[in-house]
From TrEMBL:
InterPro entries: Cyclase_SnoaL-like (IPR009959), NTF2-like_dom_sf (IPR032710). It holds the Pfam family SnoaL. This is Ester cyclase. It comes from Streptomyces spororaveus. SUPFAM superfamilies: NTF2-like.
Amino acid sequence: MTFVQVIDYETTRFDEMNALIDRWAEQSSGRRTATHTMIGQDREARNHYVDMVEFASYEEAMKNSQLPETDRMFQQMVALCEGMPKFMNLDVVRDEHLNKQLAHRVFQEAAMEGNMSVLDECFASNYIDHDVSKEESTVIGRDAMRSDMETWRAAFDMTFEPTAQLAEGDLVTTVWNWRGTHNKGPFMGVAPTGKTYEMSGSTTFRCLGGEIVEGWWHYNPGALQRQMGGTGTPYGT
């Protein structure tokens, strides 16, 4: 279970505090177990700060606290604070990244399950698509995404298996493995072969207002084309 330690403190010497955290990160490299840190400054009380430090588990946090570098940093941190910092230890019981959920719906519900109405719910009407397989580098509109998915689904029984996903700011990147059995219809000028093909790639979506507004697809359609023995391109361009 993910564990988060919250440190609440006041200081008029934040520049020194910031430098202290940088030194700790450098000195504990290779041994620290913290996975993510974030510092917030109170807009109504500018000397009030809250640090949030994330760990994979409570046990990993305890390992981190036992490092001599961590103990030394704590003593120096207290000296920079106005009063004693307050600590809160939290077991994370719900952790959702809403933009990740958008990406998941595109792969699971639309691409694999064929529910094309999901595209209207997830993509902005003026969605901008960038796809390395196309001669036209930029396509505008969610209808282009619907057409692309219908083309692939008309040819293959297919799955997308996400192997890694990273969200930062308004961007979500999904690394995936695609597997498709060519048993439905022609693709890239090749009649159904009955064979199963695999391909890996990644997709980055930019999300605003609960919608996907831009996407970048990176994969190698030429490798799939060579496996199939075809001479065309995915979309007949």
